[in-house]
Amino acid sequence: MNEPLWYLTKDGDVSCIDLYERHYSCYHCKDGRKRTQFVGPGESIVLRTERADAVFVWRKFIDDSGQQGVNCAVFRNESPHLSSELVRQADAIADHVWPGERHYTFVRAEAVRSANPGYCFIRAGWRRCGKTGSGLLILERSH
Questions:
Q1: What is the Cα–Cα distance from 112 to 107, expressed in whole angstroms?
Q2: CA atoms within 13 A on the CB side of 30
Q3: Region 24-52: what's the mean pLDDT?
Q4: Which end of the chain is least crowded, N or C, by CB within 10 Å?
Q5: How much is the average pLDDT of 46-66?
Q6: Residue 110 phi, psi dihedral angles, 5° rounding
Q7: CA distances (Å), 93 to each of 15, 44, 58, 87, 128, in order?
Q8: What per-residue confidence (pLDDT) applies to 20?
Q9: CA-to-CA dists, residue 77 to 16, 22, 80, 86, 113, angstroms
Q10: Collapsing DSSP states into helix, strand and coil, what is residue 7?
C-alpha cells in the first residue's frame, strides 16, 4: 500500500473551502456572503491532503435522485498525486466507516477539462452506470 495521502478534517476547513470554491459544483451565494461550510446535511467525511491541495467529501444522506450508498460530493485535486490513487484511498476510508456501501458520484462532463470525464474514478475501479435526468454522468463503485 502506498503512503496515506489523506488527512481527516472538518466542514469549514478554510483551505478546503478555497478548493471547493474552485470546483465546478460550487454554489455561490447570490448575496455575496462568505461561505463558512460547504458539505451539506447528512453524515460526512471531509478529507484533505497535507498541503491542502486536494479535497474529497463523502456524504451519506437521502439523495433526491434515488441513488443509494455513499456519495462523493466533492473531489478536487490540485496536488501532484494521481487522482486515481486519491480516489482509491478515499474509497478505503469510506469502506472502513460505511462497510459494504456502494460509492457513487455525479460528473458534469462539459464542466471538466478531460476528454474522458470521470477517468480517474474509472482507473480507481469505478464504472459508469448511467445518467441523471439532467444529463450528469453517474459513476459507481460496488462491492
A1: 8
A2: 0
A3: 75
A4: N
A5: 91
A6: -75, -10
A7: 21, 12, 10, 10, 22
A8: 61
A9: 11, 10, 8, 8, 13
A10: strand
Look up residue 143 and give its three cell numbers: 462491492
Grid cell at residue 75: 473531489
Check pLDDT > 70 for residue 5.
yes
Contact 16, 38 (CB under 8 A): yes
Q: Name the nearest CA neighbour of 113 among 135, 83, 134.
A: 83
Flag whether pLDDT at 17 surpasses 80.
no
Could you tell me if 107 and 70 are in contact, meaning their C-beta atoms sit under 8 angstroms apart? no
CA atoms within 13 A on the CB side of 100: 0
Pairwise CA distance, residues 123 & 54, whole Å: 18
